[in-house]
Structures
1.
Amino acid sequence: MSVHNGKPYGILLFEKWHGKYNIGSSRIRGHWLAKYWPEAEIFRQGAKYDAVIFQKCYWPSYASEFGGVKILDLCDPDWLAGVEVKAMVDNCDAVTTSTEELKRQVEQFTDSPVVFIPDRHDLDFAGGKTKVHEGKAKRVCWFGYSHNLNVLDIAINTIRRNDLKLTVIHNLRPFYAKADKNVEWKEDTVNEDILKCDFVVLPEDMRPLGKYKSNNKAITAWALGMPVAKTPEDVERFLDPEERRKEAELRLKEVREKWDVRISVGEFRDLIERIKKQKKSDEGR
């Protein structure tokens, strides 16, 4: 059990491990989980846990000595960047992944359980605000990290052809010259900035690593009642406010049924219990 408040599960965050702040994967697969998981907390050095989830953190020396349940949570194919993912996998009881493609790849180098637990959303993050769709669309937006901005290039002609203005919400390193407006991403203003637009444009990521990306941006938009255009046909359809209203209603229902982070809490909890039972069974042999 943990030293101070008795929470048995710790989530070691990528952002904490690297001394960063407000990292998307740590928010989605760490902070939001802990918010709705009474038995879990953000990992504290020196605390004692029954289980630790290593959220994109590679600490094999600690994992090899830790006697509780150990889960490596992956949202990127970090082995392609030279990270020794295999060493960490070998010292964990299971691996969880944010996409099916990541799951398939990890299964190639381990016999340990690999479980797909998709990115899901804290429905309270929207603050109860959803877009009211009126009139022909005039402005669209994209949001994310600046190093991913080039995925927008294939959509620029479609955006311009339909007389739409483009807002890009990102960390401003660098500015995106093809946008009409560059806005800094901030946790307390991003929803408001998205809602100033009529719909979100998220072109398919055609880069080699694109197949590993989750749909978390789409879920964020849907939770705000914002349609997501992935193709030129989508862009043209969502010019019509009635089409936007229909899509928004459909996707809001989907978010509430499939993409609530509380579902992920249940899946992680079930996985930990399965591992505990397996460990107990192995000890009895």
2.
Amino acid sequence: MHLQGRQTTGRFIALLHRMSSLYLGQELPSVKIGTGQYIFLAELFDEDGLSQEELTKRVFVDKANTARALKKLEDVGYVRRMPDKNDGRIKRVFLQPSARAIEKEFWNIITLWSEIICHEMPQERQDSVIRDLQTMAENAANHLQRY
């Protein structure tokens, strides 16, 4: 693959990430969270009761970032951390009813951004882009395992 100058996949992904952060920074305060917490809440909406370690691995941040984000989610009453039943060293993270109460609004915010960036793209093309991005994410994760 030969890309000229600034026309690289990484550049456009980085631009989209920055724009996504700006959008989320404007919209997420309505559900009392920031851009540093939303990815953890999204993971927990998909699978409640994950451990802090599992969350750290899934979102590719360090343990300290995970702990800070979860603390903020605890402070607003969205999650509770509890020791694992079989291994007290493991902390599991559980959604609270207040998180479930904002779940629909949360997903509306996330979904609207996808609609905005995919405006006028046929659904088949959107599906293809998702598959390509999943492949890129897997490639990046596999590469980063070396470090």
3.
Amino acid sequence: MEKQTETTPLDLRSAEWASLTDGYGGAEKIPALLQDLRRGDAEALDDLYGHICHQGSIYPASVAAFPHLVSLAATMTSPDLRAGVLSLAASIHESAGLDEELKASPYVAAFHAVVPAALVMATADLRQVEDTVSGIYLLKAAASFAGFAGVARVLGGFANEEFCLACPACGVELYVWPVAQGLSVAAEDPVFTPTAKTLLVIAGPADNSPHLAAFAWLQAQADALPLLDDIAFRLPFLFGSACCAGCGHVFSLMDALLSDAVD
């Protein structure tokens, strides 16, 4: 068995897996699922989602499994399976910084050690995608690995073609939709109320925005890929200012989305 060092991933033969927890309890099944995934078993990827990213929640076993996911992605020849593995790894990475217990994991150094490799893979694969939805999820993954985990949690709204949040002032649920002019805000779901009052989002970010680095990084990635032209056009609005269609309160759209993503 490989000698354990601070940045060495937990050996798949280690009995320590049984002492870790995942979405269903003990994590003793994780090594076998990772081995199945190495053999190209797509069902193992679905099972791993349930165990280590159950309904978006992560666990001590998630941190320990993360380096193995990155290592596996590097060996995969199937673009779809590799993208799926990177997306799972990114989902874990997005949430890991929010949990104080996970920050204290003995496997956190091994977790952080492989993030640069994950970023290289995600950005390289982003240049090869052939459909917009795959591009959005790889952009989301790359953003997390690049250090913008909070913003990455928000980007899935582009795939859903809708962002939902609560007004920071009055608490009413707001719906942000893509429109020809960028993004619009409504206090009623436009699916069920097509005549709902909508207000346009003002493009940003402001010069004093704490999200300037994230915006610049995302814009550079999206601009380099014609497939993501629509995303590149809408990014300034995602980082812009919105007005609540219910109470008229003006707020930073990204700040409000980040707050909702954490809550």
